[in-house]
Amino acid sequence: MSDYLDSLEAESIHIFREVAANFQRPVMLYSIGKDSSVLLHLLRKAFFPARPPIPLLHVDTTWKFREMIAFRDDVAKAGDVQVLVHINEDGVRQGISPLVHGATVHTDIMKTVALRQALDKHAFDAAIGGARRDEEKSRAKERVFSFRNAQHRWDPKRQRPELWNLYNTNIHKGESVRVFPLSNWTELDVWQYIRRENIPVVPLYFAKERPVVKRDGALIMVDDDRFTLREGEKIEKRMVRFRTLGCYPLTGAVESAASSLDEIIDEMIQSRSSERQGRVIDQDPSASMERKKQEGYF
């Protein structure tokens, strides 16, 4: 297993260095989840002992779990990497909310549009993300270096060939690429690497008694006083954890007793369900991941 993780690590570090060598203004998209934590660790390793030359960008929807924001702020306070935060202020002025406007509208305005705003504002030509091919079918067919046009759109029919470890980094002015160093990792690989490298992650990944509401088949954690109950709903305490993190009203918890890394890994080995089963946005057939990516999503 050590040799296998070493191979994945070496591939990812090579990709980071390729980005730094070939692009003028690269950035790493930092969503604060486990994959982002692994990416940040790899970024630091890739350029150690120098300060990482690639800043982090967090697109803040204003609806992330409070523990996620605290974790992000701790990373920023560490001071070894620049952390940029972007909020779609137009969306804030419109009062866009996942509870009022729904998952699709909220994700489009506060994530997709916000990301395009940030990339344009800073003129980033390469955006590194933590997507993995085992997560979802549209991600399974995407290249490591994924071309985007001047409008940040992805065309799955016009992907560039990637032979062995040779990547095409050529772009015209205004175009960009999304880069996925964890493409060949699995969820289990991520957790085993986190354990081996002792990488800090948001505590929400570990099982704990938390206040949740059962809504549309998902266990939604009540994280602040903006959450409103529907008729017939009630808040109850359950032993839960999260396999994936996002906006708290759109992220379902899973019942679990796994409160340590070893227990999470044992749970992963036995699991037969996708980690994205808890993402409310993924349940909307009109907002498939492929369609969102074509519109400029992560």
Automatic annotation (TrEMBL):
Catalytic activity from the UniProt record: sulfate + ATP + H(+) = adenosine 5'-phosphosulfate + diphosphate
Region: Disordered, residue numbers: 272-298
ATP-binding keyword on record: yes
SUPFAM superfamilies: Adenine nucleotide alpha hydrolases-like (SSF52402)
Compositional bias annotation for Basic and acidic residues: 273-282, 289-298
Molecular function via GO: ATP binding; sulfate adenylyltransferase (ATP) activity
Pathway entry: Sulfur metabolism; hydrogen sulfide biosynthesis; sulfite from sulfate: step 1/3
Function as written in the Swiss-Prot or TrEMBL entry: With CysN forms the ATP sulfurylase (ATPS) that catalyzes the adenylation of sulfate producing adenosine 5'-phosphosulfate (APS) and diphosphate, the first enzymatic step in sulfur assimilation pathway. APS synthesis involves the formation of a high-energy phosphoric-sulfuric acid anhydride bond driven by GTP hydrolysis by CysN coupled to ATP hydrolysis by CysD.
Subunit structure: Heterodimer composed of CysD, the smaller subunit, and CysN.
Name this polypeptide is given: Sulfate adenylyltransferase subunit 2
